[in-house]
Predict the structure.
Amino acid sequence: MIRKFCALLAFIALSIAVGGMACVTTENAPDTADETDGAT
Amino acid sequence: MSTLPAPRDRPDVASDDDPWRRLPERVALAGVLILAALVYLPTIGFGFVYDDHWTILANGFLRCPGDLGLLLSAQAEELHVVDAFRPTAVLFDVLSYQVFGARPAWHHLLSIALHVGVCAAAWHWLAARGVPVAIRVATIGLFAVLGIHAETVAVVSYREDLLAALFGLLALAAADRAATIRESGAPAWRMGCVVALWQALAAGAKLSAAPIPAVFLALHRVGPWPTRPWATAWRPFAALGLGTAIAIAQQFVVGGGAAPYAGQPGLFAADWSGAEVFATSIQISADVLRQLVIPIGFAPEYADRAAHIDDVATVLCSLGLLLAGAHVAACALQRRAPVWVTVAVATALLWLPTSNLVAMPNLRADRFAYLPSLPVCLGLAVAVLALGRRLARHGPAWLAAVPLVALVVIQGAAAQAAATAYKSDSRLWETALRRAPHSARAHAIMAELITAGLANAEEGAIDPLRRARAEAHCRRARQLAPGDALPRLCAARLAVLDKRWSAAAAGFAEALPLARAREDRILTAWASALLDVPELSYDARRAQAEALAERAVREFPYASEVFAASGRLYHRLGQPDRALALYGRARTLRPERWDVVLWGLELALDLGDSSAAWAIWQGAEDLLAGAEPRRLDAARRRLWDATSLLPHAAPPDLPLGDLADDP
């Protein structure tokens, strides 16, 4: 049962990583050319 | 771990043939905690964003642990100690700064650890309530990866929500344990003290934890899992109430009331009519509930626009919430669907503090849903487990896990995607503008960010496109919120960039009375701009600038920017002793500022003390490695010239070398 649980966790973690990247890349990349942490 | 109660003959409780029951509890807990950490692991590479700048980086109070006693007096508010009405969060920030300095990776790691701690505490509490292991795994697994938590975990300064949840859940777990003690002897008192302490720390981190005593009481009356008789439950309830009262008393001492933002100008919840606030809050509450279940539409910024009581959306949302409330009441009276009643009552109670009953700067933010999302996760967990069991009846056994796994993956992916918005300020406000194009604040701050970037450009090398973009955002902000300070502030900063000093000074003067907070940055920027206003005589400029700088120093003794900018001002005015004292204080309040070191070095060179300048250069070599290359190179060349041409100049009688020491 422990092995199955670990395998399930690994599968979930991988799926989340892939899904997260897919969600991010469906949007246009934001303009970060002026990246600075000064103003706010 | 507690002994699991025997499953009951109900669909919401695991049955004996449930595969989860064969999984050791410790392994199950470790699994969900690892998942909680893994989802937010990428945030370790993120920087400081959003409120981190003024609550962590520029907050000199964190560098003065000897002044922590101020958090118990009204002086804290007078001296503008940031978030003085959240003593637990401030104390935690002081400690974490002393340990990790201003290294963002470590602070993000700490936020992840706190989120993992919250998950562990929630598990602990559910175990103390006797919730079956399958439901615990599903609830905490969902809570660990819930999409709406991205802001809370990814932004360092929002760990106040994490702390409130962590201590609040520890208080609830301790209260449940205390409710099993029948005698009123020493163990009951000891346990009561522990409960009160945890709850005081929770409500002291953020008052979102204030309804926890009510949650404890409600769950003991309506919960599906073991309840305690009032004869033993009243003591922990009283201890929880005492903890909340201690935190509220601290707020009264520091701010003179339970509403810390009450005195700020321009708060929508204070300016709008009661009906408008109610209508807006109803729509927000319904949409947050939707976001908890369907994880789309998260944003770092939501445009605050007054809704009306007769709007179709308000009517529909009110009707939906009213029907849900009526159903919950009917179920509670008939003692049916206890899980649904538990989830609804606990969610409603925990949502109360952030439902705009008390005026706050933001009507809505994802972080407000952190603690209230726990009972929602419990409800979702019971629902998906029931769905899984139904699926497994018509197919292979592994189908039982499919709904839960699918929901965890969807929520986790949404959380990871939402967290990327908080990687840097530019990315954050770019995302904010996409999600909330009608937010004046988003436009104004974007204009300020672009202007700050342009200010570092070489003379005459300002990109006209970026300059136009900054102005466009600034104008749009003014159109959207003509009575707000931020559009005036960004216009004034643009004027500074263009060297239109009169317009800049006028802009800062207009912005100051409209500002909700952080007037220090307006005061110092105004003072600096005034020095160059051509319409004023030199004496008038000098007198006004000095008056503003002194006011800022007096009113904001923990704002590093005040001392750095005021030091620069006195440096320009030819008062080296005052400038040195202010630079020294600025270094103490924010030792990570390389520009203050360069200004101190310039001061030493201006006074002809090349040996002190050399000592400053050598003492801050590590810090200067991160300085802007153009300015660093200019300072290096000046230092080289001074040491070559004036090696034996008589040094002034000033302890300039003090700036070389690491504060």
In short: The longest helix of chain A spans residues 2-25. The radius of gyration of chain A is 18 Å. The helical segments of chain A are 2-25.
